[in-house]
Design brief:
With about 220 residues, the chain is an alpha/beta fold. It is built from eight helices and five strands. Strand 2, helix 2 and strand 3 form a beta-alpha-beta unit.
Length: about 220
Amino acid sequence: MLLKLTGSSGAGKTTLAFALADRLDGVVVHEFDEVGVPDPPIPPHWRNHMTEMWVRRALEYQDRGMDLLLSGNSPLGEVLAAPSAPLLNGTAVCLIDVADQDRRHRLAARDGGRWDQAATDAFCGWAAWHRGHARDPRFRPDVIIDGSWPEMVWRRWTTWTAEDPRWRTHLIDTTGQSLATSVNQVERWVTEQREAHRSGRLALPRGWTDETPRPTDHDA
């Protein structure tokens, strides 16, 4: 299955993902941006294409009997709209969040003054959007849909409401927590999602959409 840690920069999602690399059997860990990132402003098409690429990587691991734990900015709606997403045997998304002031401090410490005030404000705004999107699919979907890659299949979820049992993003807030505590929380979430998958209780198992993808979505 695909286990996705999402959220805006500075929350710690990549640090948390790789801290689990040696603690989970049958799980491979990757970071979304390890393939390289274009210079800002990054067009939506790039993240859309890369989300589809990572879904296909998850399918390759799936064929080998392994789960993919992936950290990156793509929220639940983008993952579900990726052309090949319905081919996944299971999908689960967790939002890694942190208070804005902590985010600003972490970005400054991590990136050594790379970001000016406008950039850090943008990261905090993106984080606020993530929170709204995690709660309700009707919250500003235009933010990710407008100008997106034409192959993205947004209609799969744009009629859903917050009450739809498939619309489920777990939240882990790292504000004021030690790294060890946050790592344990993510490990517990991963373990619970894998168990839900095995027992047929996962919110997004294969078959969550009635749409049947074209065979070329996986083979192309």
